[in-house]
Amino acid sequence: MRFAGLLSRLVGRGSAFLAGALLAASATPVLSQPAPEEITFVAADGIAVFADLYRPPGMSAGDGTIVILFHQAGGDARGEYASIVPRLLQAGYEVLAVDQRSGGDRFGGVNRTMAELDREYSYCEAYPDLEAALGWAVENNDARRIAVWGSSYSAALAIRLAVDHPDDVDAVLAFSPASGEPMEGCQPDEVLGDLRTPTMALRPDREMGIESVAAQALELERNGVVVVVSVGGVHGSSMLDPDRASGDVEPTWRAVLEFLSAHL
């Protein structure tokens, strides 16, 4: 299905789409990556999961709303989110960036959780890491609100996390949610009918011409998910990184920050 046809159909059905080329460009802020507090927590199957906790300057523990970041396949939290964490801190959010057991050095970093393991894990097998991260945030969360943010395979798992824990997750951001055979046994499509948490799914325009992606976008929209197309974007959360995307990232950032502000 061609992207132009899909865009017309979905806009007609009320989805929120972002046409970056039609919005005025603005300068991308230059922000530095602050030093995190490294923490670990244990998943239900006993695996130690490494993560980084970031707080905006002057914020005390338990004072802010927290956004939990999960990386894409072959990645790690520090590598994928180096340019994204500062923007979230600037917006006033506390950030927990997690190294899942399914990842690697795609972005030039080290996946600390994987480094301690003696075998590889599938995407679905990483789900306990997401539950453990959410559990940590709830336990250390003084009645704050929580958003979960996934990239590619972890975007699909983040949707499932919200379905399984509706009382703990207040918003979901799913960047290029994976589906199909690699997600066999934990596909997001299987649980969309039970999704009650406000959710935004984002895709780069170059992926919208793929038939399975277009079909997924329609199914997401039918189940109340806001679908955003990032013009000039790339796969996963990297569509927000100006050094990875080929277009202006600011329109996509505006959609993300407006969504978080509305639901957190």
Work out the helicity level: 25-40%
Overall pLDDT, averaged?
A: 87
User: Could you describe the largest sheet, including whether it forms a barrel?
Assistant: 8 strands, mixed
Number of helices: 8
Stretches where pLDDT is under 50 for at least 5 consecutive residues are 1-28
CATH class: Alpha Beta
CATH-defined topology: Rossmann fold
Shape descriptor reads globular
Beta-strand percentage range? 15-25%
What is the element string, with H for helices and E for strands?
HEEEHHEHHEHEEHEH
Terminal CA distance reads 35 Å
Whole-number tally of structural domains:
1
Overall CATH architecture: 3-Layer(aba) Sandwich
Can you give a write-up of this model?
The chain has one domain (3-263): Alpha/Beta hydrolase fold, catalytic domain (Rossmann fold, 3-Layer(aba) Sandwich). An eight-stranded mixed beta sheet has the order 1-2-4-3-5-6-7-8, with helices on both faces. It is 28% helix and 17% strand. With 264 residues, the chain is α/β, with parallel strands linked by helices.
